[in-house]
Write a structure and sequence with these properties.
Blueprint lengths: L8 H7 L1 H22 L15 E6 L3 H15 L3 E6 L1 H11 L4 E5 L2 H7 L3 E10 L1 E6 L9 H4 L6 E4 L5 H12 L3 H5 L2 E5 L2 H9 L5 E5 H6 L4 E5 L13 E3 L3 E3 L4 E8 L5 H11 L2 H9 L22 E7 L3 H15 L2 E7 L1 H11 L4 E3 L3 H9 L3 E10 L1 E6 L19 E4 L5 H12 L4 H7 E5 L2 H9 L5 E5 H6 L4 E5 L8 E8 L5 H12 L1 H9 L9
Parallel strand pairs: 1-2, 1-3, 6-7, 6-8, 13-14, 13-15, 18-19, 18-20
Antiparallel strand pairs: 3-12, 4-12, 5-8, 5-9, 10-11, 15-22, 16-22, 17-20, 17-21
Length: about 550
């Protein structure tokens, strides 16, 4: 009879001292392997652990541009970036609650909130957002501006201020136009997001809506964008507000930014990606997606001054940007001084400058603007630096056969022209049309896009949204791979003469003077020439 108390062979094995020792050793090895694998230090027989992708939260409006930048980054570096997208406010809540992720792409005023809560390390400006009116393709209701939104029977859509930054800004715009009561009487819906009201216009449920320019651009096959007159847009001083939550909010300029998050477990990799997105090539992607230019390279929150080297503040006409970007980079490399550059339409910059009085230098698209602020006693001295020559740009191959100014009045020609109240190219066009007896009614009938900067106009032709535009010769050269140029004869043309002015508000006039001399020196002139700008009038 078998003894029931005798241990089985398995029990004997488990009880043996030798086996228990082997088991302990294996357990320790397995535990170490699992710990190292979890922490990415060792693959435990499966090779090195894969690099953890960066996690970037991105607002819905910024998603298409950010996705394109990510594709470029992944091709160049092999480093993966994952997206978590939603409304900018919704994404802020995700960061706050999860305490996980590496980067955040959003727009004002959410950087101020991220910084005040200690969630973000720093922010870099990528672009900006501008309010526009959107209507159905072809503009069947003939809406040309805010006044037309007040017409009886026009169905208007706006965004809800509880969920949307633009929802806060719209009442300011309507008040500045003196039409708030009349337009709000026509508002039939207020939705959470600009994309929703834009879609409602595309479907014919609304006649018009006010959305960001980038929202309109995404739907350019179904919608036309109508620019809002600069005098109706928020004033940087009068319409700015300071809040406990977001700090000071400049309603006149809504920045799009990328911020590195403090909860990131990969801060160096996060900063490298942020720098790539904020580089000239990254910003160009945002420009191609219909965003307005950024004001400066770095976002400084709550008015804080950047540490380190001296800073110059330059207001520069948008049409000079290709050359000035390299000029600024070279000057910084030579002197160590940072130059914060605000690129916008020259007309828009004049009003900012008069109110802020915080800049060192002003270089508009024509000396005329400088002379206007000179009359107000704001300019210490000025120096001529370049000339801008208007040309007609058309789609590659010139399919519409546009050979002269008169061809711009032909029925069916889609034109992109600058707003004369906002930028110099618009003013130059007014002079050119008057000088050559061009039918203004025909021009207005053909106007498909009115831009506040010259850079937007060439892009419209490149993207096929316009058949022709009038831009500077240097801007035309920038788009040479995708447009053809039709010169305007000298006797018909209006050349702009560009000067840079040292402002009396400058806090570093000696350094500002040095920058002016750099522009007109051999190195500065060579950079202008490399970007196809003339430094003396054409012969």
């Amino acid at each position: 009879m078998k003894d029931c108390k005798r241990p089985s062979s398995l029990q004997s094995l488990l009880a043996s001292k030798e086996f228990r020792g082997r088991l302990v050793k294996r357990s320790l090895v397995l535990g170490a392997c699992l710990w190292l694998s979890f922490h990415g230090l060792w693959g435990c027989g499966k090779g090195a652990a894969e690099e953890v992708p960066l996690l970037c939260y991105v607002g819905g409006t910024m998603r298409p541009a950010t996705e394109e930048v990510i594709r470029l980054y992944e091709e160049e570096t092999g480093r993966r970036v994952d997206l978590d997208y939603g409304g900018s406010g919704e994404n802020l809540i995700k960061v706050r609650v999860r305490q996980r992720g590496d980067l955040y792409v959003g727009h004002d005023p959410f950087l101020g909130q991220l910084m005040s809560e200690g969630l973000a390390d720093r922010g870099r400006a990528l672009a900006s957002l501008t309010p526009v009116i959107v209507v159905r393709k072809g503009n069947p209701d003939g809406i040309r501006g805010l006044a037309d939104l007040a017409r009886e029977g026009v169905k208007v859509g706006l965004t809800d201020p509880e969920y949307s930054t633009l929802g806060h800004i719209c009442p300011v715009i309507l008040d500045r136009a003196g039409l708030r009561r009349e337009i709000e009487r026509n508002v039939v819906t207020r939705m959470k997001m600009g994309g929703q009201v834009a879609n409602a216009v595309a479907l014919g449920n609304l006649d018009a809506a006010i959305v960001w320019n980038a929202v309109a651009f995404l739907r350019r096959d179904k919608l036309d964008a109508i620019h809002i007159a600069p005098q109706h847009l928020p004033d940087p001083e009068v319409d700015a507000v300071t809040t406990a939550t977001y700090g000071r909010i400049d309603m006149s300029h809504v920045s799009v930014f990328i911020a590195t998050l403090k909860c990131s477990k990969q801060p160096e990799a996060a900063r490298a990606f942020a720098e790539f997105v904020a580089s000239p090539s990254g910003r160009e992607v945002f420009a191609r997606h219909g965003f307005s230019p950024a004001r400066s390279g770095e976002v400084h929150v709550l008015g804080a001054e950047p540490p380190g080297e001296p800073v110059l503040r330059l207001y520069c006409g948008a049409g000079l940007r290709p050359a000035v970007a390299e000029l600024v980079e070279t000057f910084t490399a030579l002197t160590g001084a940072e130059v914060e550059t605000d690129y916008a339409g020259s007309g828009m910059q004049v009003s900012r400058m008069k109110l802020r009085r915080d800049a060192d230098l002003f270089m508009p698209g024509d000396v005329w603007y400088l002379e206007q602020v000179e009359k107000d006693g704001l300019v210490a001295r000025k120096v001529m630096v370049a000339c801008l020559v208007p040309v007609i740009v058309v789609q590659k191959g010139n399919p519409k056969g546009i050979r002269a100014l008169a061809d711009l009045t032909r029925p069916g020609i889609r034109l992109a022209l600058g707003n004369p109240e906002a930028c110099q190219i618009g003013r130059s066009c007014e002079v050119i049309f008057a000088r050559n007896g061009i039918d203004r009614a025909a021009i207005r009938s053909n106007l498909a896009f009115g831009g506040v900067t010259v850079n937007e106009l060439g892009l419209q032709v490149k993207m096929g949204a316009a058949d022709a535009a009038i831009v500077w010769d240097a801007i035309a050269a920038y788009y040479a791979d995708s447009v053809d140029v039709v010169p305007i004869p000298p006797e018909q043309n209006e050349i702009s003469h560009v000067a840079i002015g040292l402002l009396k508000s400058s806090r570093n006039s000696e350094l500002a003077e040095r920058f002016m001399q750099f522009l007109v020196g051999d190195t500065g002139r060579a950079i202008f020439h490399r970007h196809h700008y003339l430094t003396s009038p054409p012969q």
